[in-house]
Specification:
This protein is an alpha/beta fold and 379 residues long. It is built from 11 helices and 12 strands. It starts with a helix and ends with a helix.
Length: 379
């Protein structure tokens, strides 16, 4: 009897052990808990078929850091990057340094330290951008830079894609409008609104010099920015003071390398009742459009790239880097000319493509799997 009970007990123990160690392949798989944020979808989600695994494995966090103040161009750039990133399911945080290079480098260092997966930086200077971004690359972060020169003793960071507006074309388009104001074969006399030390503006300067050397324009005065907290007010005061020095008939045009400066010059023209000087600029915003449309406005043209599109394209490039897909070392976005005479009463940044064909449109670096993510996240 004892042998029988012992055998029975052994059999029961064996069955119990076998049941505990049996694979659960026949049981329904427990679905992975989705992230409560905008990304982190389960890899088994049928709606994400074809999306690279790296884009679905976890919540992707991106920091966008811009080394300028919160002007219209900046707001649109950040809005484009944020919306495109969120449409991919990314969590996107944006930061501004107000043109303070030390603060800019601090913000980038903090983003690296805080463990963001990706980084988009805007308007870094050549004297520190390599050292600023090298730790991010070494850490394995994906990086896209806009209007930033990355060079240290001839060495760059090939892991980083750098985008630019086509600054050479922006300068060419705007300066051709300036040169067209020439009379009697004489060079156009220009008040130049200029700011040195920023890579995109330095690129525009090379074209400006070509127009000077060709005898198409002559620079009467150069006006720069000294107060980045109030660019418009700063330029308005400086241009206003200069206008007293140059009576009507002595200045043929104002050329602004940046529309934020142009707004200040426009204010000075209005306040001083100077309807004799047309103005041509670079960059565009809703405020610019409104000012160009005002009765009697002398702001006659501007060359620009849609700032929101810049943010969108930069985020697409970053997404391709997350996916492990090839990206170029450099990419220029196409420039357009916007003329005052083409603007309609209802024209704004959203519908500008009605009067400027191709404005704000680009399939650059867009992939079918990005459309899948957009469908998933409803953007």
């Amino acid at each position: 009897m004892r042998r029988y009970l012992a055998a029975l007990l052994s059999l029961l123990l064996l069955v119990g052990v076998t049941a505990c160690s049996k694979p659960a392949s026949n049981a329904p798989a427990e679905p992975a808990t989705p992230s409560t944020q905008s990304g982190g979808s389960s890899q088994t989600d049928a709606s994400l078929e074809g999306v690279p695994e790296a884009l679905t494995a976890k919540q992707i966090r991106v920091a966008v850091v811009r080394n300028l103040s919160s002007d219209d161009h900046t707001k649109q750039f950040l809005d484009g990057a944020r919306k495109e990133g969120e449409s991919f399911g990314f969590s996107v945080d944006t930061f501004l340094s107000d043109g303070d290079d030390s603060r800019f480098q601090e913000l980038v260092a903090q983003a690296i330290q805080k463990g963001y997966d990706g980084l988009i930086v805007s308007h870094g200077k050549v004297d520190y951008s390599y050292d600023m971004l090298k730790p991010a690359v070494d850490k394995g972060m994906k990086v896209v830079a806009f209007d930033t020169i990355i060079d240290k003793n001839g060495e760059s960071l090939p892991e980083v894609t750098t985008t630019f507006q086509d600054d050479f074309k922006l300068a060419e388009l705007s300066l051709e409008e300036v040169a067209a104001l020439a009379q009697n074969g004489q060079p156009v006399r220009v008040l130049k609104l200029w700011m040195a030390g920023f890579p995109p503006l330095d690129r525009r300067e090379t074209i400006y010099k070509q127009f000077e050397e060709a005898g198409k324009i002559v620079t009467l005065e150069t006006v720069g920015v000294s107060n980045f907290q109030d660019v418009q007010g700063d330029i308005a005061a400086k241009v206003g003071a200069l206008l007293a020095k140059y009576p009507p008939g002595t200045v043929d045009a104002i050329w602004a390398c940046w529309d934020e400066m142009a707004k200040g010059a426009y204010q000075a023209l209005v306040e001083n009742n100077r309807t004799d000087i047309p103005m041509i600029s670079i960059d565009i915003s809703n405020q610019d459009i409104n000012l160009m449309r005002e009765p009697g406005s002398k702001w006659i043209a501007t060359a620009a790239v849609d700032p929101q599109l810049i943010g969108i394209v930069d985020m697409r490039l970053l997404a391709k880097k997350f996916a492990g897909e090839p990206t170029p070392l450099y990419y220029d976005l196409e420039a357009k000319l916007i003329k005052q005479e083409h603007l309609k009463p209802e024209t704004n940044m959203t519908n500008l493509n009605d009067v400027v064909p191709g404005w704000g449109e680009s399939d650059a670096f867009n992939e079918p799997w990005m459309d899948t993510l957009r469908a998933k996240y409803g953007k």
